[in-house]
Each structure stands twice: as C-alpha cells, then as structure tokens.
Design a protein that fits this description.
Blueprint lengths: L10 H8 L3 H4 L5 E8 L7 E8 L2 E5 L1 H6 L6 E4 L4 E4 L1 E3 L4 H7 L11 H14 L22 H8 L5 E3 L5 E4 L1 H7 L11 E5 L5 E7 L3 H4 L7 H17 L2 E7 L4 H12 L5 E7 L3 H11 L6 E9 L29 H13 L3 E6 L2 H18 L7 E4 L8 H7 L2 E4 L1 H7 L3 H5 L10 H6 L4 E3 L10 H10 L19 H7 L2 H6 L17 E4 L16 E6 L2 E5 L1
Parallel strand pairs: 1-4, 1-5, 6-11, 11-12, 12-13, 13-14, 14-15, 15-16, 16-17
Antiparallel strand pairs: 1-2, 2-3, 5-18, 7-8, 8-10, 9-10, 18-19, 19-20
Helix pairs in contact: 4-9, 5-6, 9-10, 12-13, 15-18
C-alpha cells in the first residue's frame, strides 16, 4: 500500500525546495567539488568548482566555493575531470529494460543456430519459466524474419515469447502459440498483425496489438520480483551518468514497481512515469487521491500510440513501404480514438505524449494536438511526440509553431540507418531522424534511449547524434550527415531540454544555485574529444540529490 503522505502536496522534495539555503549556508558547504572542468548546462566549459548543501547546489565558481568552505566541508578534488549536469533520459521502458539485464544476449547471435542455442541455454538454466528475452533483430541475422521453426526444436514445450528489439513484435514458438490459443483461424486484432505463412499458418511473429493475445497468458511477475529488477536497472542507469528517466510506458509494470520502491525506501534515481492513455480514468483517480508524486517519483502523464515501428512495417506512412507494396502500417490506436482521448486527457490536466514513427502518424498527431489547443485553449501543456522519426520536410516547422516537443532517440538513427532505405526508399529519407532540421526550425528537441530498444547510455546517444555513423561502420562520414548536431546541442538535449519536457527546468538540468545537485563527472571533455571517442568516455561519478550514487 502506498503511503499517500509521501506524495500529496509535492511530498518530501517540495519541503526541501521550500527551505532556504541561506538558513544552512552560515555553517558552510557540506561538499565542495573543486578543480573541475565545469559545464553548467550552457556556454563553454570552464575551470571551476561547485558547492553543495544537502541535496542542492549552493554556489558555483572557484572563489565562491572557497569562501564558503569550512572545516566541516568535505572537499573533493576532481583533478580536472569534466563536471556537468547529470543526464536525463527522455524515454525508457524501465522495468522491461531492467528485466533484460538478466536475460539471454540474443542480439549478439551470429546465426540462426547460435540464436536458437542461446535461447535453449537460457531455458536450461532457468527451467519451468517462459523464455521472455533478451531481444532480437532480424537485420543482424540475414534480414529474414525468424519463425517458430527456428526455435521449436531447441525449446520443446517451454513457451517462448521474445520481443524484437523495437518491442513491436514477438517471436513465439509453437508452445507459446498453443498457450495463447493462436491458430490459423485467429483473426488479426484491430491494430495488430498475426504473420502467417503461405499456407495460412501462424509463423510465430505477432505485431503490435496482436501481442496482447500472448501477453494475457504470460505468468505475471510478482511485485517483489519487479522491484528487485528495477533496483538492478537503477544501478545500471547510474553507472551511465543518468539521474532521471522518463518512462512513457506501454503498460503499468514500471509504474507499480517504482511507486512501491518509493514507498519502501529512499530512491537513488528520479522517475517521471506515464501510463497508457486508455487507462486515463484509472490514473485520474490516483491523482485525485494521491497527487502527482514528488521530485523522486512523479506521474500524471499518459502515452498514446499512433502507429507501430519501422522495423515491423507497422509505422503509418502516406505511401506504401518500398519493400512491401500495399502496406502502409498499422494504427495501434485509431485516429478517432486519438481525437477523443487526447483532448479529454488535456482537459483533465494530464500531460500527453504520443508515439509516432511514420510521416502520416506524425502529421495526424500534430493535427490532433492543434485541434486540442483550439478546443481547450492555450496553456503551458508541453505536448510531446515520442520518436518523431519520419517527418515530411513541410511538417518539421510545425513542431516549433505548435510548441510540440520532439522527444527523439539518437541511437536509433545509427541502428536503423543500416537498413531504413530498404523500407522507405531514398526520397523519404529527407525528414528521417531530422535532429538538426528540427533544432534549426526552433523546435524543442530532447534526447533519450528507448531502453531496452537501445542502450541506456547517454554518451552513446551523444556520439550517435554528433557522428551519425551507423553501428556497422558502413557510414564513416555519417548517415544523412546534414542531420548531425553539435556536442553542445546534444548535451543540452540530454539535460536542460529534458528538464523542460518534464516541467522541471526550475530545479534540474543545469548547474545553478538552488537546483538539485544532480551531477555527473566524466573522465574526458566531450567538447574537446575526437567525436569518434565520445562513446568511450567513462563516467567517474554520478551524484543525485547531493549524494554520490555511483563511483567507478
């Protein structure tokens, strides 16, 4: 049971923010981080220091920190290391990602046989359990979608339901198909696809809303199992310099586990949770009874899905897929529902974000957002589009004009860049992962991972945004190089921009007096590093709320 006293009225963090630093400043700093190469979140790095009192930044600058250092101050000499605001990740599926830390490594498989062998080995080591991970990418296995026949012999009667890396498809073995009751006679659900062979039999691939058919029979995690998994995920995120994650999730699993952790223990990582828009009434009841959380664990947002994914050919486009004539994608939530649900949630004061990949899906969401503003009036609502992956050039200026945040994930560009042209052809690459064009148009652009679809590793994301070099090394000059962004722009998208996207620009994302002491120490300066080396920069320390939560 959640103790609502932790959350109502802003909870513990609201009290901390209200307490003036001046009341404690006379006693001097608690911590002085000295001899740093400091980037405060704007401008250029400079030599400097930062002083902390409690969970907040008290002063910035070497002279000011020295003046407030007393005998009781713990002085940490950073020896010239790079100090900056800790990273915020705009998009994670946190429980799913945390679970995958303990699952089979299937993305490393080099052949069908290796793929099946890895699944079989994990199943032998974990008997009597469904095999639910890691994840797979057919592009790393020759390009053909896997089928149940690849894995049936290796898995026998143990059900297998493994997501594609984009989380929009499952590969099922015959045991899982049987458990889910999926046969040749099972119709495709609205917003979903059951892939069938030439004889009409299910191949084992189910897409988007068809995943529900198997998810309803997978044994659920216990709350204790989910909490333990999230703890592992928190430690992993902290090791990458992340102090906060946004969780625009596809179910309630992360929400329940994170809130339960918050009720039982102090947190090490900040969370901002969204839940499926279809469950808006359930969320509104929680908000009415408990508020919207505190600065460690917050909620009050809903996520809609306008389409699926490029890899699954379920992203919704205006024209056919180049490699699948007649297919234009799948509306995971119908357009009529989006037109009803989004204005309803907005009127109720919920923060709305919508997944949109294809060019038509992005246009549809921008249209619905514009209709909502006209109907409900102007206010500071901060609509987001998650991914904004393929946008027509004519629609790019709409993000700034409508004040819609483009919540994008740079690693996807260097992953999908290996094969995206096969799906959509050359012409539609104009407007694909268009980070530079969006920023140049004046749009607010934020960065994240989509973990576990991509690694929860902001420095990998900065590398991806700055170099655009695909993960196969085939594009050393960068894939769609006109969409590269500067190191400053990438770091800003991982800090101040994400703070704004979560209504927290007054307390996180920058190094300034009064802000939370959410900081990361790196072993090299990203501004000065060879762009190829940015991904190899190491996190030395992660500080969240004034406390060191990770040290290398």
């Amino acid at each position: 049971m959640i103790d609502r006293r932790l959350f109502v009225g802003g909870g513990l963090a609201a009290v901390s923010l209200a307490a003036p630093l001046a009341a404690r400043a006379a006693a001097g700093l608690d911590v002085a981080l000295t001899n740093a190469l400091l980037w405060t979140g704007s401008g250029r790095p400079m030599r400097g220091a930062v002083g902390l009192i409690g969970d907040r930044i008290a002063t910035v600058g070497s002279a000011a920190v020295k003046a407030q250092t007393t005998a009781r101050t713990r002085v940490v000499d950073l020896k010239g290391a790079f100090l900056m605001p800790a990273f915020i990740d705009n998009h994670t599926h946190f429980l799913i990602g945390s679970d995958k830390l303990g699952q089979a490594d299937l993305l490393g498989a080099t052949s069908r046989e290796d793929f099946a062998a890895r699944i079989a080995a994990w199943s032998r080591a974990n008997p009597s359990k469904w095999v639910l991970g890691g994840s797979w990418d057919e592009q790393r296995l020759g390009g053909e979608l896997p089928t149940r026949h690849w894995i049936d012999a290796a898995t026998g009667d143990t059900p297998v339901a493994i997501p594609r890396t984009d989380l929009h498809m499952y590969l099922l073995n015959s045991a899982a198909l049987k458990a889910a009751g999926i046969t040749r006679d099972t119709p495709d659900p609205a917003g979903g696809v059951i892939v069938r062979d030439a004889a009409g039999e299910p191949t084992g691939i189910v897409k988007d809303n068809a995943k529900d058919l198997v998810e309803r029979v997978i044994p659920p995690q216990t709350l204790d199992e989910a909490m333990a998994s999230v703890r592992n995920g928190v430690a992993h995120a902290l090791s990458k310099g992340v102090a906060q994650v946004h969780v625009p999730d596809i179910n309630w699993g992360s929400f329940h586990a994170i809130r339960a952790l918050r009720a039982k223990q102090a947190m090490d990582l900040r969370f901002y949770c969204f839940v499926p828009i279809a469950d808006r009434e359930r969320l509104l009841k929680i908000v009415a009874e408990e508020g919207k959380g505190d600065d460690w664990v917050r909620w009050g947002g809903v996520k809609a899905l306008a389409d699926g994914s490029l890899g699954s050919r379920t992203a919704v486009f205006k024209a056919d897929y180049a490699d699948a004539p007649g297919q234009r994608g799948v509306r995971v939530i119908g357009l009529d529902e989006l037109r009803r649900w989004i204005p309803e949630c907005d009127r109720a004061g919920l923060h709305v974000t919508t997944h949109a990949i294809g060019d038509l899906a992005n246009d549809d969401v921008l249209d619905v957002y514009a209709e909502t503003v006209r109907a409900n009036g102007k206010r500071d609502r901060r609509f987001r589009i998650e991914h904004a992956q393929h946008v027509t050039p004519a629609s790019i200026p709409r993000f700034a004009r409508q004040d819609v945040i483009a919540s994008v994930q740079p690693y996807h560009a260097i992953d999908d860049g290996r094969w995206a042209v096969k799906r959509i052809g050359e012409a539609r690459l104009n407007g694909t992962y268009a980070f530079h064009s969006l920023m140049a148009s004046g749009a607010r652009v934020t960065f994240g991972s989509d973990w576990p679809v991509a690694p929860i590793d902001p420095l990998q994301g900065v590398y991806a945004a700055v170099t655009r070099e695909t993960i196969d090394g085939a594009n050393p000059q960068g894939w769609l190089p006109d969409q590269k962004v500067s190191v400053a722009a990438a770091l800003t998208a991982y800090t101040r921009a994400n703070a704004y996207a979560g209504f927290q620009e007054d307390r996180v994302g920058s190094i300034a007096p009064g802000y939370y002491a959410d900081l990361v120490v790196l072993d090299a300066d990203p501004f000065a590093a060879d762009p190829e080396r940015i991904k190899d920069i190491k996190v030395l320390k992660t500080i969240v709320g004034g406390k060191e939560r990770f040290a290398a």
